Amino acid sequence: MCQLCGETSFGAHSISISERPRQLLGGLRWSGTHEQAASGETEALLRRVQAFSASRKAVWKSPIVALSRALGEVSFEYFAGIAVEPGEALPAGFDLLDLVEMTVASSWHGQQDGDVVTHYGHILDWIRTSGHRRDRTHYDHREEYPHDADLDAPPALRLMLPVQ
Question: How far is CA 70 from CA 32, 40, 47, 123, in A?
């Protein structure tokens, strides 16, 4: 059973519209092909951001926010980061991203829920039937991983597609 939505199967996870506020993120940028991402290159970024998060002395730990935008049929750009304070020191190679507020269609994807791409397909179907439209002005996808996510296990994360 999903502890976040109380449902027992992937298809039953609720999809809802939610707001994400403007955030200042400290993280890493990457661009490449879907093949490179599948070989672990984006996962390496997530691991570095997770290590940065673990090293911070904050009481509240930000989820790891991952954003992607298509650069054509086979490539995309990717940013993974965590919420930081203005002026906070970042590790070498990290950049700041002043992330705009956004309205998203979102759904929790648990470790038992199978293929993430299939789940995104269900969200896309929901967007179409609910009268919303995708908003690709800034990003195509937003994902939020728990700060302590087990990156060696099947994925558990919040899937989000910006909408208007």
Answer: 10, 18, 22, 18
